[in-house]
Design brief:
The complex is a heterodimer.
Chain A: H1 8-21, E1 43-48, H2 58-62, E2 68-74, E3 80-88, H3 97-101, E4 107-110, E5 124-125, H4 127-130
Chain B: H1 3-14, H2 18-55, H3 71-81, H4 92-109, H5 127-135, H6 137-148, H7 152-183, H8 188-194, H9 199-202, H10 204-217, H11 229-232, H12 242-267, H13 278-299, H14 305-333, H15 339-360
Classes of the chains: A alpha+beta, B mainly alpha.
Chain lengths: 181, 370
Amino acid sequence: MKFERYGLGIAKGLALTLKHLFRAPLTVQYPDEKLNISRRTRGNELVWFPDRCTGCGTCTKACLQGNIILVTHRGEPNKFIVDKFEVDTGRCIFCGLCVESCPYDALAMGVDYECADYRRGDLVLSKEMLSVSEKHKPSSYYRPQFAEALPKQSLLLYNREDGGQKLKLLPLSKRKRGSGA
Amino acid sequence: MTLLDQFQLFLKGLGWPEWAWYAVPAIVGILVIIVFVLTIVIVFIWWERRLISRFQIRLGPNRCGPEGIFQPIATAVKILLKEDIVPDKADKLIHFLAPIIVFMPILLIFAVIPISQGAVLVDLNVGIVYVIAISSISVIGIFMAAWGSANKYSYISGMRSIAQMVSYELPVVLSLVGVALVAGSFSTVKIVEAQGIPFILMMPLGFMIFFLGSLAEMNRSPFDLLEADSEIVAGYHIEYSGMKFAMFYLGEYGVALAYAGIITTLFLSGWQGPLLPPVIWFIVKVMLVFSVIVWIRSTVPRFRVDQLMSFAWKCMLPLAVINLIIIAIEVLAIPAALQWVMIIVNFAAAGLLVLLWSRLFTLGGGRVEV
């Protein structure tokens, strides 16, 4: 005998929603709380490694948009010196082809994703802005060697240790709600 | 003796002219009711949005003021500042009148709901009948809105609304007759005073029928067919904006408040309760009823039209009739001192009837296994 027909199904549903009432909300209040995004993200801005770059120009050829400007001059024996390496992120479609094509692993995608600006001109990134630094980290897209340095992605629904929130009861203090990254 | 009567006597004692004995208490009472309704409605809007988001493991509005308490005010300001658009082919007069006709009866209902001891605008001896009569008027408003908008969606919504209201009025009224039988009066004040034991315990089946019926009457989920946004966009208020839409919005929550008040008055022993003052008890009970409504909204999916009609006519109406017969027999047979017998018998009867009807009553053929 099944009791679904006697209103027990509705009672089950009501019990489930009631249980939800005492769970911590899954909402991430974005500007205040940020989750760690995937380590393989094709984030905003390329990350350029000046020491590894030979100025071969493979990335400029791979770019679908013709978006990368590379100017070099001949320097020491058998070496190009890069004068200008410019990317217009306003036109970039983040396909990652330049990163994949680079024979010397001198390019990587970035992990940043908040790059809105007020002027189109500000979106054009120069050599210095693209160079790798503490603030300007490479993502591990097509570059698995960078994966270790990045924080693990925080998953919402499972992986409780890494800030996921499955079946966590509502914490009383407001600050603790939605403990993202 | 209501508070208004005392106010009247006070004015007589002051030596005010005769017309003022009636006019001043009436105007003060109406203002108090309007302020009470609008305040609670604003709290209701906030409370529903917060609570339903908690049921869905979200946070809900929490930016505007502490815990988002000012969000309804921001919404109201936004709605009021919007342009008032009237469709080209609309029936202008009907389109204009509809929101008022939807909203006015809801305010009128509050005239007979006792908020505290003696705090009732008028103690009608036919209080329940008045409530039923008045609350049915807003259907006309909804149909006027649907017709006046000259929109197919809103017209479908209007037809659904009428079918729904007419169907669910019957079981609601029949379950109210049971209340009147036990209390021995139609007056809402007398009904509250008769509830030493809340009537929810005395007639659980009647309460269930009335609660579900009033969900349908106030067009709440799972009976919100007439504004089913996945099917007919927004139903009857699809062509409304600005102030007129605000009237509908207000009416939607006002009717929820009104029915929560009626349920509190008729089944949850109204303002009665220990320790706390009566007004607080009334508001607590109203919020409790409204929270249950929100809980149901967050859980149960919407009915289909045929399910809606068969639920009303095949399930609720027979149960309401049987409930009425049982209660009538009990009122005749069981003396007032033995009310606990009534509680036991009624709970057994309610369980048995619901079980029996769920056997008999399957939706759209239903599943075969039992």
